[in-house]
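Workshop exercise sheet. Pairs work together: one partner reads the sequence aloud, the other fills in the structure field after running the prediction. Swap roles for the next sheet.
Pair: D.N. / O.F.
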Amino acid sequence: MLVPFIRTLILYIVIIAAVRLMGKRQVGEMQPGELVVTILVSAVASVPVQDIDIPLSHGVIPILTLMSAEVIISAFSQRHIRFRRLLSGNPVQVISNGMLLEKEIEKLRLSLDDIMAALRLKGIFDIRDVEMAHIETNGQLSIMLKGEKHPATLKDLGIKPPQSGPFYTVISDGHIIASNLKTISKDSQWLEKVIRANGVNDPSQVYFMCADIFGSIVFCKKEGAN
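Structure field:
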């Protein structure tokens, strides 16, 4: 029992390390080559896990080979546009001025239901509101609305918004994240004052707190904390 456990654990660590090399894309954002490598890695890893008579190296080496090839190809494609387009293809326009482009949709082997569902998922229920839409190389639908259909912004309304910055988590489940506290140019004394102002005496009693550089905070203490 111990041998399969150790082999599986080693392969798990190798796969995690290999996937990290591919970057932080989600499955729905992967390019075709990345998706193929991911599928192959899962297939290759399953063999030595199921059969302990197969040397572990027969799983590790192919995985490292696949991921090394992916890293090299990705680096090469970043520097060569033609090669990148050969691997990933080009975005395809499927809507123009509120009208579906039949030929382009047929080339992609998509149905009208696919296009309409993608529009609805983006909150668009009237195709006439769309100036243009493209199927990107990762299969996602990108949309540009017609000018009069764009949501009004504060600038359009002549309203000057209050200053705000990105929020960073400074306390997570009672643990202070010192690096984020430094990022927003705050110190432990400021944090202590904020905690006490919110009726808590110790960071361990805080479930979640985030703040920006202007001092705006979101605070949530743990249930039952005094």
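Discussion prompt: The mean pLDDT is 83. What would you look at next?
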